[in-house]
Structure formats: C-alpha cells, structure tokens
Amino acid sequence: xxxxxxxxxxxxxxxxxxxxxxxxxxxxxxxxxxxxxxxxxxxxxxxxxxxxxxxxxxxxxxxxxxxxxxxxxxxxxxxxxxxxxxxxxxxxxxxxxxxxxxxxxxxxxxxxxxxxxxxxxxxxxxxxxxxxxxxxxxxxxxxxxxxxxxxxxxxxxxxxxxxxxxxxxxxxxxxxxxxxxxxxxxxxxxxxxxxxxxxxxxxxxxxxxxxxxxxxxxxxxx
Length: 222
Fold this sequence. Notes:
Blueprint: H1 16-26, H2 37-49, E1 53-55, E2 59-61, H3 66-73, E3 77-79, E4 82-84, E5 99-101, E6 105-109, H4 113-121, E7 127-132, H5 135-150, E8 152-154, H6 155-162, H7 167-179, E9 184-186, E10 189-191, H8 200-205
Antiparallel strand pairs: 1-2, 3-4, 5-6, 6-7, 8-10, 9-10
C-alpha cells in the first residue's frame, strides 16, 4: 500500500460538485454560479469585519493568535486536524485509529478499541499498517500544503527542496496555469488569485495523483 500524495493530514476533499464548478468557471461562467461560493464569501467578509484574520481556506483567528501570525509570516502548516503553527514534522497519534507521521511516512493504529487495547496490554505497538512516502509523494504533499496554506508556491523553492524530483510536478503546474484562470503563473511563482481561493481545494486536487482512485472523501471543497 503506497502513501497518498496528499498526506492524510491534508485531504483535498470530495471534488465532484466543485470540479464541475471549476470546469464551468474555466469555460467562462461566473463563479457566482458555483454552489456555496456566495455563503463562503459572505462569511469571509463578515468575520474579518468583527476583528479576526482569515487563515487559509476556512479558518479565522485573532490577529495576535499563533495561527494568524504563522499565516502572515509564511509558516502556516496543515495536518489532518486542520491548520497549525506547529513546525514539528513528526506527529505521534495516540488512541485507536489515530495516525502518526514520521519522516519516512505514516502509521495508523488499530481502528478497533478492543484490538488497540489488546496490542497495548501485550506490550506491542498499536500501529497495524503504514505507508512509505516516495520522492514524488513528498513533492506533491509539500506543493498541496503550500496551496492550501499560502494559495501559491515558488518553483525555485520547490526545486531547492526536492531537486529533479520536482520537475514533472512543475510541468503539470505550468500546464494547469495555461488552461485555467484559477492558477496563475507570474515568473517563478504559481498563485491562486483571490477570486478563485474558495476553489483552492479543487486547484490542489489537480496535483493529487491518488485522488481519482481514492475510495473515501473527507471534506467538501468549498
């Protein structure tokens, strides 16, 4: 079993309805026709007016909160619990069905509480399955995280982190930017423009090589 390129802490969401909206917008239809966009935009206008800063695609925080500070400084991260300002890349999951992240990949504890308890009481590790990250998984996972956190990424930074493993993904990004108004290329940088940010999950899904065959969907795209 291989690791998903969008790691378990970064589900890009069920994209069926939003994908249709994405295609419609790419064909020139106004974004206002895209289902829940009006609701998302209403909240995005109302909550900041009350004093909170927008963080990523669907979070808000007071300006002095750690999440807001991380978002302003480009240090915002995302795991399966949502957005985080924790820079540690190792996450230890405790309890039944919990997921842990390590440099090498992911491990999941037994989902059944009974089995989980039996493993612990017998002195064994509770993890029953794991997946290892390939170089391509790491590139795509980082890119998706930056799109979800910063609404963009630098090609130079991607190459600096991953070397030639980034080449094929950057070619995909260039083709996506040529064919859609929702990912814009400006020199070294690829950016989701402000008017398209409610569709950020759908843009990120373009880079998830496992999504078409995934059996489960975790979040709505808008």
